[in-house]
Amino acid sequence: MAELNAEPALMTLENLRANFVNEQPEYEEIYGGLTRDETIIEIYNNLFGRAPDATGLAYWSTGEGAAVNADQLVVAFLNGASAADAQVVTNKVLVASIYTSAAGDNFSTEDAAAILVGVDGTTASVSDAIAGLTDLPSVAVPAAIGLIEAAAVAAKSLADFENEENTDALIAINDDVAALNTAGGYGATLADLDADSDDEVSYTEAEAALANAEDVRDAVSGLSTGVLSTQATEAAADLAAARTTLVNGTNGAVAAVRAFEAAIAADAALTAPAQADVDLRTAQLEATAQNSGAAWSNAITAAKLTAPVTADDLFALLADTATSASVVSAVNTAFAGIEGFSAVSTLAAQANAKAAADAKVQTTAQAVDDLSGTAADDYLDAFDASVAAQELLKDAQAADALVNAADAIVSSHDSLEQAVSNANTALNNSAAEVYAAGFTGTSGADVFYFAAGDLDQTLDINVTDAAFNAGDALYIGQGYTLSSVTELSDTGALVGGNNSAKEIFFIQNGTDVNVVVETAEFGSSTAAANLAVNATDNVAVITLLGVNAEDLSFSNGVISYVA
Known about the structure:
Elements: H1 2-5, H2 13-23, H3 25-31, H4 36-48, H5 54-61, H6 73-79, H7 83-103, H8 109-116, H9 123-131, H10 143-161, H11 164-183, H12 203-206, H13 208-220, H14 225-249, H15 253-268, H16 275-292, H17 294-302, H18 311-319, H19 325-334, H20 341-369, H21 375-428, E1 432-435, E2 447-450, E3 460-463, E4 473-475, E5 480-482, E6 487-488, E7 494-495, E8 502-509, E9 512-518, E10 539-544, E11 552-555, E12 558-561
Parallel strand pairs: 1-2, 2-4, 3-10, 5-8
Antiparallel strand pairs: 4-12, 6-7, 8-9, 9-10, 11-12
């Protein structure tokens, strides 16, 4: 991480991937000596829990994907994963994170592999893995601690998933859904992602993109893409037959049909400028016109136009196919020095070309229609039917892709939510006891922990000796180190700490122990005498009554009473 984040970076992600493949013994143990096909099959098994299909294997081994280096295969497979395969990966990453956090320094390669056995795309497989967490030899903590870790990791994984990247991905999908709905004229009523009208879209709100995509897919057609593909194929065959009949039996049909089809192809290759771009560029040019003074007037005169002339007027003039080439040239020359004109001229030329292509389609279609006999009408009808079938298939495929893309994100989120629920259920059924207003404790051994957000710099509680006994454990969380050098000065200040780490330290206070937990990384503090806490102290203080510091240990986020 240090080398990746250095300025300038001492290592790139590409270097790291290559290092995995070329230098790490774990990679050599799993993939060393395998052929390309065998490597692909093994990665598929490890990532998705299945073998590749024949088409996929051929693509990555001898097809276009054969050029992808071994160190980039995993990334490539993940980028191209289906929603179902992506869900398997999401679940495996979640379970792996839970195990890694629970095992801490006792991490075992064998246990890490064992806990992933059976993890697939179902939430039940995640639940089963969590349930078996504390059966692993490397999870050397009380069962409740393992469950607390599982709940914490699951909650963090869920929170991390609801990030800007996934939210923006859903927003982008929704934008494409809306564009497809508008372009195809399908008329589906789409939900506004900003449901609470606060000008911000949260992840939860963004999930409405999936329902919008499904609504547009339904509006496109209730038929599957397989059926639509068959219909498109049949329509193309009907068109080919109608064309043959026309050109074989009608004088002049060959030239007319070829001209029409060429016009169609030329028109399809062009697009009209987006109206939003036109509005933006003409508005910018109009602002220039208002501030340019004589330069604008001189350009109007040089182009032999009649004032007043606005930016919108210039766009309309240049975009009109009836405007002569000489007038277009004169306008472009006269206004060339006006800031913002070039952008408007470019958009107008694009609109002009598209309009001319559209007109050419109309005139050539009319020429076909003017041919004698019914064969021309049959051909044009078959042409329209084939185009409509192809467009419908294309839009259905586009809608399916958008539904699948949104579903992959939402399904992963649902799985993480279920994992949180599963972990919390298991935790609630355990012997762990959450801190609320104070620990109650029982006669047997207890594991205590804090609800999310409770362990902060305003916390100052006493835990009675009736609650915290030998054999009990207090879960603080990951990311802390035990300090043996930090002390409480005569003035009540904390001194001697590491200012680059969050620390925990024990201070014997008579017959009690003050467990001081830093809530921020700092070396010293001006904490008040007797460790009273407030919003600026950067510490939480837990006083264990009737406990000796020498009877406490701290490891892997857990304070244990070992007397």
